[in-house]
Amino acid sequence: MSVQVRVVRLFAALVLGLAWDTTPCRGDWYPVNLEWRPAIQTANVGDTVEIGLYAVSTLPQKISSLEVILAWDPTALELSGLGNSQVILNPDFTTDDGISWIKGTGWTIDVANSNHANAASATGNLSQAVNPLVPGETYVTHITVSKASGGVGEGVRLVLGTQPGTSHTTTGTYAEDIVADGAGFKVEVVGGGFTGYVDAVKADLPNRYAWLSSSFPDDHLKDGLNNPFPVYPVMPSNDGSAWYNALSRLGVPAGATPEGLLVVLFKFKTRKNGIATVSMPPTSGQTHTQVWDGVEPNHIITGTISGPAVVNTIVVPAVSTWGLLAMALMIAVMGGLVLRRGGRSSLGAFAESHDRIGTTTK
Asked: Coil, strand or helix: which one is 196?
């Protein structure tokens, strides 16, 4: 490879913010497959389902960007947004429902004024009522801490399972990767006590990458899959097609893995019962479903595109007209028996009546 070509490649990689591979010829790239997870799920009419898009490769493979065409039946499903990747219930303390957080000594949740978890000389912990974590996985955690008073060492820290994170003894917003060694999650008081509040307590799903951009971009000059506007940039219209785009952070490309990199969660609201699908067409006009290499500029490394994700939407079985008539007749009969027997138990009266009907008079 000539010096000129190597210089051009290096310049392009630096401009695009891609990791640079100094080998003369790159033959060790791996195709990136795009998969839906779960591939099949069941929901009730009116529910919101989340379908995860995963990037999978035989060995770790860097990605600079990817583009995905979505297609679905808009009479059966309504695209409602990009799903929330974090697993903590009620992370912003918008409700004090008693089923998301267990409040230890000194903790309260202020819904009326601040939407914070307030601590007044708290010595107990603030714990998730359910166990939301997967042991052995790495989570990107977030917490906002406001310390009102207390000693130098007093503060809080996040604990995933029994694995503690960094102690936060000053006001600030913190992010930290923590490997969970159990399923539980809590905000633990350190230093003997804590006075102040915490907010935005989150833990992102495993294998989730923080994209520079993850959205439905303006493509009205291309194929217009995300039209009409002004719904953009919030959400494309529910016409059965959309174009999603993800861009890696500068200098820190995303990486597909054999386990699968969670790219994004798509949220759909179910509109009618029956089988509905969400597919990834390879092309639509000038638009393509494709993955771009995170090392070699302008190198498309798209592998296999999975078949459609299936959503089986059901309705709560309704009681038929004949069923309603039968229930009404039964109630009327039992009510009449109660009246005839001076208010005796309708069940007893019905049983006695049934016995007498079945007895032959000699």
From this structure: strand
HSE-CB at 206 with a 13 A cutoff on CA atoms is: 14
The per-residue pLDDT for 359 is 37
Q: What percent of the chain has pLDDT over 70?
A: 76
Collapsed DSSP state (helix, strand, coil) of residue 231: coil
Same domain, 236 and 303: yes
> Is 168 among the domain residues?
yes
**Burial group, residue 362, by CB count within 10 angstroms (0-12, 13-18, 19+):** exposed
Structure tokens at 128: 């998730």
Same domain? 107 vs 193: yes
* 193 lies in the same domain as 234: no
Q: Residue 330 domain-assigned?
A: yes
- Can you list the alpha helix ranges (DSSP code H) found in the chain? 3-16, 321-340, 346-357
Q: Looking at the structure, tell me whether residues 245 and 187 fall in a common domain.
A: no
CA–CA dist 299, 302 (Å, integer): 9
**Total domain count for the chain?**
3
From the number of C-beta atoms within 10 Å of its C-beta (0-12, 13-18, 19+), residue 69 rates as buried
Angstrom distance (rounded) from CA 18 to CA 173:
29
3-state SS class at 268: strand
Rank 46-60, 276-290, 343-357 by mean pLDDT and report only the highest.
Answer: 276-290
DSSP 8-state symbol, 192:
T
CA 107 – CA 197 distance, rounded (Å): 9
Among 178-182, 210-214, 269-273, 340-344, the range scoring the smallest mean pLDDT is 340-344
Q: Which two tokens stand for residue 262?
A: 């969670």
Of 87, 77, 95, the C-alpha closest to 41 is 77
What is the Cα–Cα distance from 260 to 268, expressed in whole angstroms?
22
| Residue 280: how many other CB atoms lie within 10 Å | 19
Tell me which residue range forms the domain holding 344. 321-357
Tell me if 93 is assigned to some domain.
Answer: no
pLDDT of residue 234: 55
> What pLDDT band is residue 89 in, cutting at 50, 70 and 90?
confident
Alpha carbon dihedral 185, 187, 192, 196, in 10-degree steps, equals -170
Residue 344, token pair as written in the block: 């005796």
